[in-house]
Amino acid sequence: MGRVVVLAAGFALVAGGCSSGAAGGGGSARATPGTSTSAAPKPAVPRQASVKWADRMCQVTKLLATMKKNSAHEVADIADPPEDALIGPDFTAMGYLSEMSSSLDEVAKKVGEVRPLGIAPADRLHDDLAKEIERVHLGVTGLNDPGELADPMDGSADRAERVGRLIASLETPRPGLAAVTAAEPELSAAYRLAPGCAPPKPLPRAADGTNVGACKDGTCEILVKKQTRLVVRGWTLRVSLTEDKATVRNHDADGAVGEISMAAGGRGTFADGNGAEVTIRAVAVNKDGAVLKIRAK
């Protein structure tokens, strides 16, 4: 039998079918599939103070990592100088001692600029890190205090080795910055916004890749990832790297020797008595290597 609809006294009765809903006392509303019945949590909006805290703590952490790696590299060169070293180990050690003192001064200044947040794990991390930096800073200052030395050159290589051990002993507290920020929603959001916490930009593409042979004709742009020897026309260059510098040593045909150290964006030129020149520009330098642009004339 087909559907029969009877209208009477203001209500409708539908035969042959059924309906559900809230009109009757026994009906109940159902959520349709895929529909959430609760609002999604709003992301944390960090205070400006939290972003500043994360930014400065990231800067300090990166400076410490760079300083430790550079220190290890330079102490190794003092203990076992390369064959083409321009100066003796005592002179190299003096430069190293000065560099490490300046680096620690900078790190101590930056960690001192970090203000308490009122978030216990964050403030504890900062305080523990500040104490560790102070421990090493005081030790290095004591080994490099001119007022305590009759001759600053005397024993400089030995003092450099001791400073190297002190810097190598510097440890960041645990839990570290990544763990502390991940555990606190506000700090996690601040970490993502802080410029100093952004990952380093990758090195740009070098026109000649890692092909050192491209430099023989006097013009090249190459990626250097480790100590490398280059022949650029009549010039023989050796490139060595730290976390933030590329150092190029030159041995020209007349036996002259020179050295240039460059951070990203730096440049330098070697020249001989005949008017020949070779210019090196550090397009980019980071922990992964350096992109160098070289031109001889």
* SS elements, strand count: 10
Shape: flat
* Fraction of residues in β-strands: 15-25%
Number of domains: 2
Mean pLDDT: 83
How many DSSP helices? Answer: 6
Strand order of the largest sheet: 3-10-9-8
Task: Please outline the major beta sheet.
Answer: 4 strands, antiparallel
Distance between the termini: 102 Å
Order of helices and strands: EEHHHHHHEEEEEEEE
By secondary-structure content and strand pairing, the structural class works out as alpha+beta
Helix content: 25-40%
In the predicted model, the low-confidence regions spanning at least 5 consecutive residues are 1-37
| Cα Rg | 33 Å
Signal peptide: 1-22
Keywords: Signal
Biased composition (Low complexity): 29-42
Region (Disordered): 24-50
Provide structural commentary.
- There is one protein chain.
- The chain is an alpha+beta fold and 297 residues long.
- It folds into 2 domains: 48-197, no CATH class; 212-296, no CATH class.
- Helices cover 37% and strands 21% of the residues.
- It has helices spanning 48-79, 89-112, 120-143, 156-168, 177-183, 185-193, and strands at residues 5-8, 11-14, 219-224, 228-232, 235-241, 246-251, 257-262, 267-271, 277-286, 289-296.
- The strands form 3 sheets. Strands 3-10-9-8 form a 4-stranded antiparallel beta sheet, with no helix packed on it. It has a 4-stranded antiparallel beta sheet with strand order 4-5-6-7, with no helix packed on it.
- The longest helix has 32 residues, at 48-79.
- The radius of gyration is 33 Å and the shape is flat.
- Residues 24-50 are annotated as: Disordered.
- Residues 1-22 form the signal peptide.
- Keywords: Signal.
- Residues 29-42 have a biased composition (Low complexity).
